[in-house]
Amino acid sequence: MARYSGKTVLITGAGTGIGAAMARQFAEEGARVALMGRRPAPLEAVATAIGGLVVQADAASSAEVATAMDKIHDSFGPLDVLVCNAGGFGFGTLTENSDDDLQKSVQANLNTAMVTARAALPDLVARRGNVLMMSSIAGLAAGPEACGYVTMKHALIGLAKSITRDYGPRGVRCNTICPGWVRTEMADSEMAELMARKGLASIEEAYDLVTRDVPLGKPARPEDVAEAAAFLCSDQAAMISGAVLTVDGGATVVDVPTIAFAQG
Predict the structure, then answer these.
(1) Which residues does residue 34 pair with via DSSP β-bridges, in sequence order?
(2) Domain range holding 202?
(3) Total number of domains in the chain
(4) Which pLDDT does position 33 carry in this prediction?
(5) Banded model confidence at residue 264, pLDDT cuts 50, 70, 90
(6) Strand, coil or helix: what is 132?
């Protein structure tokens, strides 16, 4: 398919994991892809493979994003799609988080999205483009010891709704994807912690444990999320705006209080 032929896509946090998978997916479908992040090496590796453009920047810095937008305009022209994928930080309970810890979570998750969306909106209005927020099922329910992360992923859904409401009349769509467990470097590190806590012998056992009560019984691949993203940002989804799509193997439909009644 060439759904994105002639279109320009900017992805934040594009060097690894879901961001890198989305960069590959959009490029395969014909897009000119700009990859934003703070670490040049992983960005360059992905960009070289897909013919993309690296715009090294802190997505939470208005000045750095403005410079990055100039570079994108010079190389590719105006944006058609913005994917706000940068995130991280905010783990631990509320009382375990210092002011600095909480601010890091706000910066990494919410400010990156607000700053880049604000910078991209003039292009997106002119091109009748769209924004995709990468939240998490942590934006729909709370996992343990992840107060800042959970709070900010909820906030991203609110931001997407606000953009939908304010800029929909000007032709801009905005949607949110909420992945569950996805096999990425970040998730692997969490599995390593679980292995240590539970005395598990392998990372496969850890993934089996965290997806035990997920209806499909397995974690997603980054490519699963990328394919969902490419659909939501395409013309095939022209009447979908303000939606929250879970890519979680059915995890969020499980009624937790009835798990004890499940067979096996």
Answers:
(1) 10, 53
(2) 183-219
(3) 2
(4) 98
(5) low
(6) strand
